[in-house]
């Protein structure tokens, strides 16, 4: 799919046995990549995958929109030429396109559809024994997160790589900064302040011939059941950095607020345009998250950790990575292309037969965003256990362009219930 329903090193090369492929050694066999979700992020990830290894080809693609699929292939061919080996028989369009990609003989799958579909697609991918690059976030609700955790266990059992799209974890300046935090450079972490304050995002005006469902699928960002809201879909990067600063320990609870102040028209579906969430940890530490998507407002994209011995900052907007306090430090190395590094490390792991499995932290970071949304939507404090065990399932189980899209009102704190 695209940004919808279906929807950056030369390395030693994995013995691939058929029909059940094994990557238990180092070899130079061609690795076939399948792309599920041909939007901008999926196409970008495919371009990076094709650059990550000298013997990788794009073998199959799938999306629910043929125009997205065609545009993606045209652009990828301009970049990678003969590495794009997708014939007509390996272009799959429809809500079941991901299944056909998995059945096409691929070795590595890129999942880059809207988040609602991620758990289903991930489970199918690991059950099929394919290595996977899984774009963030991993789900839009707790049942989806639980499925992702189950899929991560299967991936570990099958010894296949599962790598997340939390790209800042692959950015060398941030790796250095957060390693300093974890090594005690600022002492015990007392609080982490993080932001993702930006402008608005794209929307697609309705065209003649579109059904109600097609309009919703093409504008998936504005519907919580498809995107998880912008706290989960976009600002989750900042929430993930907060979790990283805390050593990926989970909070006890979250409380907060949010709403729609300026983005109130029906074209914006039912998502909020701002959030403010406080996460509370067992040792009394707190995480403070602020995000908004409002034009003509002050922007901020950063993570700042305060500890008993100093302060650490990873400021995306200003490209500042430093520690002040008893141990002063500032990153002075080269900034890598984190998107490329994701795929460099994934394909290196596959070639070496040393699987990477990031399933647990990527699922937990996703749930941090979901529980923050739950707290803002309901107006109540949500515990980690409540969030993880929530039975609220967003969206239907079957899809078509003739379906009636779920009609969901904008959440109203104090009135919207928790389940």
List the helices and strands and how they pair.
Blueprint: E1 31-36, H1 40-51, E2 56-63, H2 66-80, E3 91-93, H3 97-102, E4 108-111, H4 118-127, E5 131-134, H5 142-158, E6 162-164, H6 172-182, E7 189-198, H7 212-218, H8 224-227, H9 230-233, H10 236-245, E8 253-259, E9 274-280, E10 286-293, E11 300-307, E12 310-315, E13 320-325, E14 329-330, H11 338-352, H12 359-378, E15 382-383, H13 384-388
Parallel strand pairs: 1-2, 1-4, 2-3, 4-5, 5-6, 7-10
Antiparallel strand pairs: 7-11, 8-9, 8-15, 9-10, 11-12, 12-13, 13-14
Describe the structure.
Residues 179-312 form the GFO/IDH/MocA-like oxidoreductase domain. With 419 residues, the chain is an alpha/beta fold. The chain folds into 2 domains: 31-167, Rossmann fold (3-Layer(aba) Sandwich), CATH 3.40.50.720; 168-335 and 358-389, 2-Layer Sandwich (Dihydrodipicolinate Reductase, domain 2), CATH 3.30.360. Helix content is 32%, strand content 20%. It is built from 13 helices and 15 strands. It has helices at residues 40-51, 66-80, 97-102, 118-127, 142-158, 172-182, 212-218, 224-227, 230-233, 236-245, 338-352, 359-378, 384-388, and strands at 31-36, 56-63, 91-93, 108-111, 131-134, 162-164, 189-198, 253-259, 274-280, 286-293, 300-307, 310-315, 320-325, 329-330, 382-383. The strands form 2 sheets. Strands 14-13-12-11-7-10-9-8-15 form a 9-stranded mixed sheet. It has a 6-stranded parallel sheet with strand order 3-2-1-4-5-6, with helices on both faces. Strand 13 (320-325) and strand 14 (329-330) form a beta hairpin. Helix 1 (40-51) runs parallel beside helix 2 (66-80), helix 5 (142-158) runs antiparallel to helix 12 and helix 10 (236-245) crosses helix 12 (359-378). The chain starts with 30 loop residues before the first strand and ends in a 31-residue tail after the last helix.
